[in-house]
## 1
Amino acid sequence: MTLVAKQGIRRSGSSDRRTPIYTVEGLRVHFPITRGVMRRIVGQVKAVDDISFIVYRGETLGLVGESGCGKTTTGRALLRIVEPTGGRITYTPPDGDPINVRTAGRDELKAVRRAARMVFQDPNSSLNPRLPVGEIIGEGLHYHGIARGAEIEDRVADMLRRVGLRPEYIRRYPHAFSGGERQRIGIARALAVNPNFVICDEAVSALDVSVQAQILRLLRELKDEFDLTYLFVGHDLAVIQHICDRVAVMYAGKLVEIGPTQSIFATPRHPYTEALLSAVPRPDPRVRGTGERVRLAGEVADVSNLPSGCAFHPRCRYATERCKTETPQLRPVGEQMVACHFADSLTLKGVGSYAA
Amino acid sequence: MIDQADIDTPATAPKAHAEVEHREQYAGQWTLIWWKLGRNKVALFSGAVVLIIYLVAIFADFLAPFSSEHYQGRYAYAPPQPLSFFVQNEEGWRFQPHVNAYTTDIDPVSFRRTFVPDPEEVVPVRFFAAGETYHLLGIIPTDIHLLGPENPRDPMFLFGADRLGRDVLSRTIHGTRVSMSIGLIGVGLSLVLGIILGGLSGFIGGAVDTLIQRIIEFLQSIPTIPLWMGLAAAIPQSWTPLQVYFAITVILSLIGWTSLAREVRGKFMALRHEDFVTAARLDGLGEMVIIRKHLVPSFLSHIIASVTLAIPAMILAETALSFIGIGLKPPVVSWGVLLQEAQNIRSVATAPWLFLPGAAIVVSVLSMNFLGDGLIDAADPYGN
């Protein structure tokens, strides 16, 4: 059985109760460009520009796009690591009132950051080399006021065991571990405070392929064990297809397409998604050369100076005059939501034919 | 695509070589720095020299044969006497530390007195000899000196004597105190200023950062010698030597803090956006806790290394100030003061031993620099 089919089954199981856990409406993260001594604002870097999506309880939502498309910034804005400049972010705890993350005060924000955690991309820079792993993992327990003293140590040892490390490692320092093991420590830190939402920010991108598979498997096991919801930020479509129930595709700070993984991969509706999918390497020699590679012309759009109309139009092979003037809105097409004027009429190639 | 075989490998894979325990795995930052420094023999040796110099400063009263004021006018400009340990008499060799006394020649033309060591006349010398009284460490009253003539009125000038017949060795040892401590205290003050102002600059950023950085640039653009001269001239003549000493320290550190502040600011800025600091913030740590627990330990070793390199600069600055006569003044004894007394043609021509305090400066500055370089190399044990 293929992975996609497997995920189809799991998705239908979890989508019965479509309760939102994180709702993002019109999120904007703009950075001012200043010049001169007086710090005159001469422009805006629109890292994230008016994106909306909902993460449902129990699912894994993938957020993909090229480097610089704003996917990491989006993930960080959800926890206010970067301050959003506009829009609304709502976190809905399983038992309680929704919290407006953008206007949350200190204590409310702390509560959000306890329930929603982050696994970082680079396990080398996200672990302080000067602290033993026990202290790194236990930090959240202590400062979120969950446990004290010896209890912290017990819970850390338990966490280490759950992520597949030996509890005796508690007094070791990060430099004593390999990259994969360090990422396990990062995962243990995220999960130690018993969250229900985890943002995996390119959590496996820095790892070897063989280690990637182990970590993905671990993440999937932990998801069931802790009843988690994931927002999986990444650029590796193979990984995304493997782990995600739904996928959101970003281009130049905007959401261009969102929908169930299977239908996005089988029938992409946005030309950019098609181009991304055609770039996925195919390890099976029998299908090598059968697919047409969509080569994108030009560079990724400059988010400080976006093209008019559809930001993708200078690189799109289907672009018309309308694309240069009119900005397409995200609208439902089939199972997906697509921001393209011609989403209904274009027939785009996915990878479904071979993955199915 | 991810291979099915890979996915089926157990999630609890990393256990293969876990059985081999290495002490490195349990070593914290300071242990790693110590190990790395231990591999640098030059730095270790310099560190030992620095330690000895500071011990000399602490126990100066005991180590110096005489006090810094002790003089024997008859022996003005007496040359250094070599210390010997054995005397030969009719019974053979006998252990008796001694120096040879002088005979005085008077040049019939210039009437200048010259001293010639007299091999016949032995001045017995003993270890732990009773001499002038002093308070060891400022508390314990005693009169024991490490080395002294058996008869306190006998001459013993291992480094020679100056124009008043004072022992250059004793004065150099006593000068260690002021010269080495002015570096420490001055750098201490610079460090406080540097960490506070540099920390504010790096942590708050924005207008505060701009203001502090412009002040630093302004201070660094002023030529140091005229600035010192101006500030030193402002010290009232009526101040006691101790007050002058502190005033000079403050003057030196007012300029010295700038480079430290820059360094602290740079570290703050680089570390603030490290993922582990973000992770700590998500773990619910307040900003002050993050600074104390994550930021300061991350740059403390670098700061210690740059402090080690800042001390010799302070020592040299004090020496320079005193040498041109605007720093410390007699009766305070520092290496700079001693060198200032040596700056005349007679010293250069006939009493070169008056420059021996200069050798003390060179040795201490060099060893501090080598130690500082070693510390800088060892300060980040995690880089490759």
## 2
Amino acid sequence: MATENEHGPITSGEYIQHHLQNLQVCKADSGDWIWNQCAGNPMAINIDSMFWSILLGLVFICMFGVAAKKASPKTPSKFQAFIEIIVDFIDSSVKDTYHGKSSLIAPLALTIFVWVFLMNLMDLIPVDWIPELSKMLGTTTGYDQLYYMKVVPTTDVNITFGMSIAVFFLIIFYSIRTKGIGGFLAELTLHPIAPTFKGPGIIAAPLIIAFNFILESVSLLAKPLSLSLRLFGNMFAGELIFILIALLGVWQLPLHFGWAVFHILIVTLQAFIFMMLTVVYLTLASEEH
Amino acid sequence: MDINLTLIGQSISMILFVWFCMKFIWPPLMQAIEERQTQIADGLAAGEQGQQKLDKATVDSQEILDEARKQATGILGQANARANEIVSDGKQDGQQERERQLSLAKNDIEQESNRARDELRGQVAQIAIATAEKILKREIDAKAHKDILNNLAKEL
């Protein structure tokens, strides 16, 4: 509760709780807007996650948009070269995996990589800076709801699921586009064990199809699930360790530095894995068997 | 950590960002990169070609230089030989001319001395005759002793 903790010392439990609470808003049954009391309400929106996610998306769009606007075959500036190195890196990664022609997959991979990277990068900002700033802003302007502020969007499971579900629909779209609806359904039902439709074997066919369907559905659904949970789990755990380190007093300084250095690796790696797995899943979806 | 509307919001913003990237960021960047790639490849090829041409030109110029040097050496040798020839020719001519002039002078001198000797002989003979006449006018007849006097003049 915001008001209860405003004065007096807070316990470490409360400190952690504070850092893990999103700035939420939802509409109550009475029609009033409620802040930060929306646990379990599926119509709530995490304002902080959305704000930082869209802000970082705009950062990506602006950086690359400027580079794209200035793009010319002449000698590039250093900024231009930097952007083009990233683009070229994504392009070669995609071309190594996906051999078809698609105007979507490479830009998708670029957006995912840079955007997720930027969102993960927020983890390296010391855990209290932006929340405390937001708290101060809230108390001075009277918007007490700003007491909660979670800065790293990828530690919000909604954000990672939001992206992986978009990828999931793309997987289904690519599957249907290359194999047709029949082919897609056949892949779901006839795949690991091929049922026979001749002779007495036909009695077992519905059973086999049901079995296949369950198996294939699980493997299909596991793709977006693992994609989002991997990113969420890594970033959430990293964030939690930053929070725990922040509780240690003076000793947090060397520990924070050490963990932050290690976290640079995780930040980049997770962004790359999310991008690469997206490309791999879409490649698998658009391959004929 | 509940699932809520944020999920939909994130999906929508992702679709928008990907669409924007696909429309306005990826194509111009890729086009620029590819154009630059071809330009760089062309430039490298041109550079290599230039290098090859330069190598060839260096070899050619060296050959031409060697040839010229050889020719110059040949011309110099010829000129030296010619000069030697001219000098030796001149020496020979001079020698011959000197000898010729010398022999001419010798002839002249001989002729002159012969002529002088003949004249002197005649004069001596006359003097001798005149002397003998003077002597014989007193003693002998000039006609009777004419052959003796002639013989005497021949012997002189």
